Amino acid sequence: MFKLLIVGNWKMQGTVESAVALASQLGEQWNSNKSVEMIIFPPFIHISAVAATIAETAISLGGQNVSEYPSGAYTGEISAEMLVDQGCKYALVGHSERRALFNESSETVAEKFKAAQSAGLIPILCVGESLQQRQDGQTVEVVSAQIAAVMNVAGLQNVCRAVIAYEPIWAVGTGETASPEQAQQVHSAIRAQLGEAGEATPLLYGGSVKAANAAELFAQPDIDGGLVGGASLEANEFLNIAKLIEA
Ligand code: 13P
Question: What CATH number is attached to the domain comprising 113?
């Protein structure tokens, strides 16, 4: 059995002081656990301080984004190797905010995925449909095209070695969550798309996950954990969500 994952994406929030305080609260209360891995994604500029804070804990660290380029004259970018150098194990690629607000195409996301994996990071590939696409009945088509774009560049086996997070855009930061049935339906379509090679690929759900709705989502057969935004900024709430994965 592979590990279930509880992931906190802190987005662009907090100071170094608040990041360290949150990380240390999590570190104190999260027990090393054989079946669930906790991963946190602080803003880049806080990664170093957070890495030092959680060094003796079982919590893993990741970058919220990664450059598709290995190094060079790319002002403002952070490479996969730099993330590894800071102690990161994971990188988010293709978060809907990156796709929508920073114009990242599926092709760019695929290059980022490949760059992350080549440097030894585990990519968490984010996919998801807009409200309009859902209303038009295109959810599975959109999600499977986003995954296929990465498969075309990185190959099926490499996609299966990563983590995929289904985050419906209409549920991100809105307080609206996909119903457990809606989420499971997409997760099962993703599982089918990956085929046999993806039987052990962790599939996460994200989009307004909180302690009050997490249990039902995590009870679904193809949901292997959660990618949490807002509710990961409060240590107790995030720990409570994490406990529901174990349950
Ligand atoms: P919220 O949990 O705030 O909806 O954010 C989800 C998300 O985007 C995690 O990556």
Answer: 3.20.20.70
